[in-house]
Specification:
Helix content: 25-40%
CATH topology: Rossmann fold
Order of helices and strands: EEEHEEHEHHHEHEHEEHH
Distance between the termini: 38 Å
Strand order of the largest sheet: 6-7-8-3-9-10
Bound molecules: adenosine-5'-diphosphate, magnesium ion
Radius of gyration: 18 Å
CATH class: Alpha Beta
CATH architecture: 3-Layer(aba) Sandwich
Structural class: alpha/beta
Number of strands: 10
Largest sheet: 6 strands, mixed
Number of helices: 9
Number of domains: 1
CATH superfamily: P-loop containing nucleotide triphosphate hydrolases
Length: about 250
């Protein structure tokens, strides 16, 4: 199968106020077209740093990242940017409250260099695909629910037809039933678009319900990875076992 994201021996250390944090240590994994890979780990284990590295928002100290077989670098980031997009934990924070939903989406599309005509066609298609009514177009973000806003964040991420979607704690701020709907949507998008998803969550239960494979991070390291059933039901690493136990409390 076609590898759309390859992370090879990537490391990132932060220095702040005299403290040194090895946020990501020698991490390697790959993600294939149409695959959903979960990255689990407690808060502070390096998950968001890893997602920012994959997005090219920060530069690794060591290692290499390939997006659709092209090496991510300062030079290639502009052309690779449309191939990898992201949704975050709190969708409300990522929409400008002054803009209507429609103008916000059009503006996001323009920033990605997409033609007006294309957006006119693409936005209604994506609203439909994500289960949103076209009437949200003229609304303001604050008039929408958390679930609707997260669908909208997904629409915005899909404007440029990316190959990879990174969801960093994308359902963590939502109620259980709303979260389940968004998880179903992600699963449907993989089916309908063949998009690959890097699904990051501290919650192994959520990961288990969606992902084909899981990687577990602990203090910056990928301590275990494999098929979801294997990692969840026959974990080998002590930290994975602890994370699974904690989830049952
Ligand atoms: N910009 C930064 N400067 C300094 N330390 C950081 C920075 N970003 C993250 N860290 C540290 O790196 C570690 C991993 O953080 P993060 O990747 O956000 O973990 P997670 O998403 O798993 O909660 C934490 O100890 C965090 O404090
Ligand atoms: Mg995080």
């Amino acid at each position: 199968m076609n590898e759309v994201l390859e992370v090879k021996n990537v490391s990132k250390t932060f220095y702040k106020d005299g403290a040194r944090t090895e946020a990501v240590k020698n991490v390697s994994f790959s993600l294939k077209e149409g695959e959903i890979l979960g990255i689990a780990g407690e808060s502070g284990s390096g998950k968001s740093t890893l997602s920012r590295l994959c997005m090219g928002l920060i530069k690794p100290d060591g290692g290499e990242i390939f997006i659709c077989r092209q090496k991510l670098s300062k030079k290639s980031i502009k052309s690779l940017r449309p191939k990898i997009q992201m949704v975050f934990q709190n969708p409300a924070d990522t929409f400008n409250p002054a803009f209507s939903v429609g103008s916000g989406l059009s503006e996001a599309g323009r920033c990605l260099g997409l033609e007006k005509e294309l957006l006119k066609k693409r936005i209604p298609e994506l609203l439909k695909l994500t289960g949103l009514s076209e009437s949200v177009y003229n609304r303001r973000p604050k008039e929408l629910s958390g679930g609707q806003l997260q669908r909208l964040a997904i629409v915005r991420a899909l404007l440029c037809s990316p190959k990879i979607l990174i969801a960093d704690e994308a359902v963590s701020s939502l109620d259980v039933s709303v979260s389940a709907n968004i998880l179903n949507l992600l699963s449907d998008l993989r089916e309908s678009l063949g998009i690959a998803i890097l699904f990051i969550s501290h919650d192994l239960k959520v990961i288990g319900s969606l992902c084909d494979r899981v990687g577990v991070m602990y203090r910056g390291e990928l301590v275990e990875s494999g098929k979801t059933e294997k990692v969840l039901f026959e974990p080998e690493n002590d930290y994975t076992k602890r994370l699974l136990d904690a989830r049952l409390d």
